[in-house]
Specification:
Elements (H helix, E strand, L loop, with lengths): L1 E9 L2 E8 L8 E10 L1 H9 L15 E2 L4 E8 L12 E4 L25 E4 L1 H5 L3 E3 L5 H19 L1 E4 L2 E6 L6 E5 L4 H12 L6 E6 L2 H10 L2 H6 L3 E6 L6 H7 L6 E6 L4 H9 L1 E9 L14 H6 L3 E3 L6 H12 L9 E6 L3 H6 L8 E5 L7 E2 L3 H5 L3 H11 L7 H10 L1
Parallel strand pairs: 11-12, 11-14, 12-13, 14-15, 15-16, 17-18
Antiparallel strand pairs: 1-2, 1-4, 3-5, 3-7, 3-18, 5-6, 6-8, 9-10, 17-19
Helix pairs in contact: 3-4, 3-10, 13-14
Length: 417
């Protein structure tokens, strides 16, 4: 089977290549990939090369296929899996397979398995670890976005609070409490807002901070204060750059009580320190944003750690159970991860987009692996449509969907590009 894939050879060395996949063995599955959304973790792997903990040291001689947020359908099933899987079956994948405790993962470690490809071979350990998940959605991109959503779900489950009558922790955010997302108007922040508003364990009040009016305006447009209110959550968007004393203002929103749960969505020292300052008694701060700087640090008030029982955690990735919860909530219409997507492109744009990800404004970048198309902002469809009927049609579709990418847009793109 011939495949086209973006392969990583070393630091900042990514190449779009066509090559032949070997025949699958009895423990493997041949799969077609349709969508792959680009993650900041892929950027980190691309710039670190073999120094990344999941990327093999010999990647220069044995390149890997990049991309781990992918969705597709099964083409051929090895003999040993025919009682569980079938050709034509749609799937999503949990890349954190943790096989025998090792760091290997699709999109980081395998020569024939990664999301930025037309066809791949799923190794046995993916199925052994129950990480090949059935997907029943009407659009492939939802299956891709279930993976980043699972990271958010896992983060919410990892928050904890103390129990005065027991040494055991109470897991999850404080139900009916105050929650704040610091630097939260980016793509993962939007997913975190969506989940908090529509999950079963909700905060009473959720504050989302950022320093960019445009990002905050878009967040408020796609995740409205009114919808949050209808779901029992007071949602407040705040530009902290406009405040003389951000700590005082944010504390004032809670009546001085502070925040039970604090999400840190950007690895920026002042953001971390402000998050620490607004923690309530027994407050939990999740450093969700993974830095590329191995020496990244910020000040923490240890007086409060001792006397106010504040605590800090960090989460990355989600479990298979988190992934299944994401897929179920998407299927049931409780989550709409399309709010995360701001750009769409073809496989020919993936390498450049990955390497320049921090410099491309907006949210998630969605790649269709069987399509050639420049990475294009959804907001630019209208202007491009003045001279290109393809983008004109796409603009009309997303305009009917509150400016969001959707199943109809995917179907049109796949049929016409």
């Amino acid at each position: 089977m011939q495949t086209k894939a973006v392969r990583l050879y070393g630091k900042n060395d990514m190449r779009l290549e066509s090559f032949e996949l070997p025949a699958i063995g009895p423990d493997e599955i041949l799969a077609e990939i349709v969508t792959d959304s680009i993650c900041m973790s892929s950027y980190k792997a691309a710039v670190q090369g073999g120094e990344h903990k999941r990327v093999p040291d010999n990647v220069a001689e044995n390149p890997i296929i990049i991309g781990h947020e992918f969705c597709g359908k099964i083409v051929e099933v090895g003999e040993n899996w025919k009682n569980q899987f079938a050709a034509g079956q749609k799937f999503s994948i949990q890349p954190a397979i943790n096989y025998k405790g090792g760091p290997e993962a699709p999109g980081y470690s395998y020569a024939y398995c990664g999301g930025c490809a037309t066809y791949v071979i799923l190794p046995a350990e993916v199925m052994i670890q129950n990480c090949l998940l059935d997907y029943e959605g009407d659009a492939y991109f939802y299956g891709s976005l279930a993976e980043p959503m699972s990271c958010i779900v896992g983060a919410y489950h990892a928050f904890y609070h103390t129990n005065p009558s027991s040494p055991e922790h109470i897991m999850g955010i404080r139900e009916g409490g105050n929650l704040i997302l610091m630097a939260g108007a980016g793509p993962m922040g939007l997913g975190a807002v969506d989940y908090a508003v529509h999950c079963d364990r909700k905060p009473k009040r959720m504050v989302v901070t950022d320093i960019d009016d445009a990002r905050l305006a878009r967040a408020a447009e796609v995740l409205t204060v009114e919808d949050a209110k209808n779901n029992g959550v007071e949602l407040i968007y705040v530009n902290t750059a406009t405040l003389e004393n951000p700590c005082e203002y944010l504390m004032g929103l809670t009546g001085g009580a502070g925040y039970d749960d604090v999400f840190i969505m950007a690895p920026v020292k002042p953001v971390v320190e402000l998050g620490d300052q607004v923690l309530a008694h027994d407050g939990c701060m999740n450093f969700f944003a993974g830095p590329t700087d191995h020496a990244f640090s910020a000040s923490v008030n240890f007086y409060n750690v001792h006397y106010s029982a504040t605590h800090i955690i960090g989460t990355t990735g989600g479990s298979t159970a988190d992934m299944i919860e994401s897929l179920d909530m998407i299927k049931d219409g409780k989550l709409n991860p399309s709010v995360m997507i701001t750009h769409v492109g073809g496989i020919d744009s993936a390498a450049e987009a990955t390497l320049n990800l921090p410099n491309i404004k907006g949210g998630k970048k969605l790649i269709y692996t069987h399509v050639d198309m420049p990475l294009t902002a959804i907001a630019d469809f209208k202007a491009l449509g003045e001279s290109d009927p393809f983008f004109k049609a796409l603009d009309e579709i997303v305009s009917r969907n509150n400016g969001l990418w959707c199943a109809e847009a995917e179907q049109y793109l796949l049929a016409n590009r």
